[in-house]
Amino acid sequence: MNDAPCYRFPRGMRLLKTDDFSSVFSLRCSRGDAWFQVLSAPNGLPHARLGVVVGKKVDRRAVGRNAIKRLVRETFRTHPEGLVGLDIVVRARRPIAPGERAQARAALLVLLNRSGKCRT
User: Fold this and answer.
1) Domains defined for the chain, CATH in brackets
2) CB burial class (10 A; 0-12, 13-18, 19+) of residue 24?
3) Which UniProt keywords apply (predicted)?
């Protein structure tokens, strides 16, 4: 009846525990560019899970850090293809100016697609 895609980001699709993040950091396949570093590891689940790391060194203001997190989550939710069965941690490397959001989103999509190929 409703053929619209589901863009929710439920709790089961998030990396929440320190152990989950640690396993991705230790068993990782890493890709990076000027804005982001994307680390991935297989999780054995029928869906992908996402964790986002934005430190205070990237942007001192919480508003900027939260904007980066929203951009990453939105990109992950709207482009889930090719990421099934992966735990993904996205680490921000630098602040994103409002005029650079489209470029940063495109760069993140490229990194996510490349990390989908890391399944060893």
Assistant:
1) 11-115 (3.30.230.10)
2) buried
3) Endonuclease, Hydrolase, Nuclease, RNA-binding, tRNA processing
